[in-house]
Amino acid sequence: MSAHASAGSRHHLGGNRSLGFVVLSVSDTHTEDDDVSGHLAVDLLKSGGHHVVHYGLVANSVADVRDRLEPYLGEIPVEVAMTIGGTGVSSRDLSVAAVEAMGGRLLPGFGELYRSLSFAEVGALAWMSRAGAYLVHNKPVFTLPGSERAVRTALEQLILPAIQHLVEELER
User: Fold this and answer.
1) Who contacts 14 (Cβ-Cβ below 8 Å, separation ≥6)?
2) I need a surface site. Which of 64, 81, 108, 135 has the fewest CB within 10 A?
3) Whole-prediction pTM
4) Is residue 80 within 8 Å of residue 21, measured between CB atoms?
5) With a cut of 70, which residues of the chain have pLDDT below it?
6) Going from the N-terminus, what domains does the chain have, and what CATH number goes with each?
7) CA atoms within 13 A on the CB side of 75
8) CA 15/CA 166 separation, integer angstroms
9) What is the pLDDT of residues 76-124, one digit of tens each?
10) Is 131 helix (H, G, I), strand (E, B) or coil?
11) Neighbouring residues of 140: CB distance < 8 A, sequence distance ≥ 6
12) Using an 8 Å Cβ cutoff, are 170 and 138 in contact?
């Protein structure tokens, strides 16, 4: 079978099911008004046929991210969550630590593919990204870098083409 399974197979990538997403931008400097990457994620998700159950901005701290994200993951309409920002290597990049503190189980392939795609765009700096995909309470949680380019790459090339299949597998 080809790298892209046919839509009629059990292991299809696409589909037409609308999923409920949480988009949580993590920043100490942005507001909802100037959160370009967060708004881009919302727009891409909606244009992909999904709905955003919650969108918001949260301070860059493990407790703030965890305390905002954890209740959303318990809601029935929420099937997928993502944080935007806080995936670098500085002491203020805490999104990954927050998701791990929630017991997130890493799906390593997402980060590996993201960094490979990012390398083609930004070169050697790509390996410093800690972008990742985790399972928390049996729901996918993506930690994405805060740049517009990173959000577009992750959503268009990795998340949107495969998210329905991932959610269906988790529901089995």
Assistant:
1) 7, 161, 164
2) 108
3) 0.91
4) yes
5) 1-15
6) 20-171 (3.40.980.10)
7) 16
8) 11
9) 999 999 999 999 998 889 999 999 999 999 999 999 999 999 999 999 9
10) coil
11) 79, 80, 81, 107, 133, 134, 163, 166, 167, 170
12) yes
